[in-house]
């Protein structure tokens, strides 16, 4: 039986590749009004929308046209505030950025579609009465030119769950409505009881492959896997992250590392981990939430002995980035 979803006012903050693709599909679910916050691509999106190049929805052209396009977060009321900006707490505060809308929307659910561990805490601290829908995305999308998003392959999955229950607030209903809207928009959607488990599962790939791709100076995933030394390092590091997650009480699938290695081999030739792309483009890296936060947790729980390879990679990457910055 299909769940009837009420009309929703949706604000997407960060309408880059990920934000544009998922908001396009959410808009396709119908019965909603979508506002997109665009910065560098504002003029292009305002005039022409965003072209979505994908094989997942048949012959195009596919164009995402938000109902409203704005340059900054408006002081207006919404039902869902969807954050698709990268989690960069050492660069900017997500809570500060979304504050104008949240302050006008005391009942809005805040949907965080971001990588990493510990992303929810600062938002929860600032807005304790707004339910947080913590969401992990599995998709390959890039915006190589303004106003054009390229989707590689058919995968378009979201795994979502409530960060924490709030007494007197119907967070489960907000989660149910948003999850159903995503499903009706054609997104493969999993609503999970323990979303942090899935965050750690995704960290197994991100936490290992990002620093190895950079420090090996091989840059692409295919180059790393073609080198026996670094392929073995990737395997070891992924197993260490699994061991840490398990020690913290997150039961990981037994085949997770094996599946992660196989998935890596199936990526397109020349595919680069996200931190590599950010480094090349001169953008900040998600080191805080992908590496620093989980490693701080390991330190605080006296679990560093479980992650010797990963801990060294982390420290080597910090030094590498510092040296690189000093040379610029």
From TrEMBL:
<feature type="domain" description="Ketopantoate reductase C-terminal">
    <location>
        <begin position="194"/>
        <end position="302"/>
    </location>
</feature>
<feature type="domain" description="Ketopantoate reductase N-terminal">
    <location>
        <begin position="10"/>
        <end position="163"/>
    </location>
</feature>
<dbReference type="Pfam" id="PF08546">
    <property type="entry name" value="ApbA_C"/>
</dbReference>
<comment type="similarity">
    <text>Belongs to the ketopantoate reductase family.</text>
</comment>
<dbReference type="GO" id="GO:0005737">
    <property type="term" value="C:cytoplasm"/>
</dbReference>
<comment type="function">
    <text>Catalyzes the NADPH-dependent reduction of ketopantoate into pantoic acid.</text>
</comment>
<dbReference type="GO" id="GO:0015940">
    <property type="term" value="P:pantothenate biosynthetic process"/>
</dbReference>
<dbReference type="GO" id="GO:0008677">
    <property type="term" value="F:2-dehydropantoate 2-reductase activity"/>
</dbReference>
<dbReference type="InterPro" id="IPR008927">
    <property type="entry name" value="6-PGluconate_DH-like_C_sf"/>
</dbReference>
<dbReference type="InterPro" id="IPR003710">
    <property type="entry name" value="ApbA"/>
</dbReference>
<dbReference type="InterPro" id="IPR051402">
    <property type="entry name" value="KPR-Related"/>
</dbReference>
<dbReference type="InterPro" id="IPR013328">
    <property type="entry name" value="6PGD_dom2"/>
</dbReference>
<keyword id="KW-0560">Oxidoreductase</keyword>
<keyword id="KW-0521">NADP</keyword>
<protein>
    <recommendedName>
        <fullName>2-dehydropantoate 2-reductase</fullName>
        <ecNumber>1.1.1.169</ecNumber>
    </recommendedName>
</protein>
<dbReference type="InterPro" id="IPR013332">
    <property type="entry name" value="KPR_N"/>
</dbReference>
<dbReference type="Pfam" id="PF02558">
    <property type="entry name" value="ApbA"/>
</dbReference>
<dbReference type="InterPro" id="IPR013752">
    <property type="entry name" value="KPA_reductase"/>
</dbReference>
<dbReference type="InterPro" id="IPR036291">
    <property type="entry name" value="NAD(P)-bd_dom_sf"/>
</dbReference>
């Amino acid at each position: 039986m299909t769940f009837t979803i009420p009309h929703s006012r949706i604000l997407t903050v960060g309408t880059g590749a990920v934000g544009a693709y998922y908001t396009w599909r959410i808009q396709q679910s119908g019965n909603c009004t979508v506002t997109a916050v665009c910065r560098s691509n504002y003029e292009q999106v305002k005039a022409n929308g965003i072209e979505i190049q994908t094989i997942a929805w048949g012959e195009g052209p596919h164009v995402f046209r938000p109902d409203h396009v704005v340059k900054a977060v408006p002081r207006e009321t919404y039902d869902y505030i969807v954050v698709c900006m990268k989690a960069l707490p050492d660069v900017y505060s997500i809570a500060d950025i979304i504050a104008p809308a949240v302050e006008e929307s005391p009942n809005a659910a805040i949907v965080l579609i971001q990588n990493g561990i510990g992303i929810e805490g600062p938002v929860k601290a600032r807005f304790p009465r707004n339910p947080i829908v913590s969401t992990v995305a599995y998709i390959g999308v890039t915006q190589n030119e303004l106003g054009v998003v390229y989707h590689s392959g058919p995968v378009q999955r979201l795994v979502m769950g409530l960060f924490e229950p709030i007494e007197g607030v119907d967070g489960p209903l907000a989660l149910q409505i948003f999850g159903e809207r995503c499903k009706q928009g054609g997104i493969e959607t999993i609503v999970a009881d323990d979303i942090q488990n899935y965050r750690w599962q995704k960290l197994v790939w991100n936490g290992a492959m990002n620093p190895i791709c950079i420090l090996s100076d091989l840059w692409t995933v295919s180059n790393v896997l073609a080198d026996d030394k670094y392929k073995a390092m990737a395997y070891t590091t992924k197993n260490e992250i699994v061991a840490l997650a398990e020690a913290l009480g997150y039961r990981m699938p037994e085949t997770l590392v094996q599946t992660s290695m196989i998935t890596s081999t199936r990526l397109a030739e020349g595919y680069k981990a996200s931190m590599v792309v950010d480094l090349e483009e001169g953008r900040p890296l998600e080191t805080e939430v992908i590496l620093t936060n989980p490693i701080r947790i390991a330190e605080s729980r006296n679990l560093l002995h479980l992650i010797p390879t990963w801990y060294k990679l982390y420290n080597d990457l910090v030094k590498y980035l510092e040296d690189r910055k000093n040379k610029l």
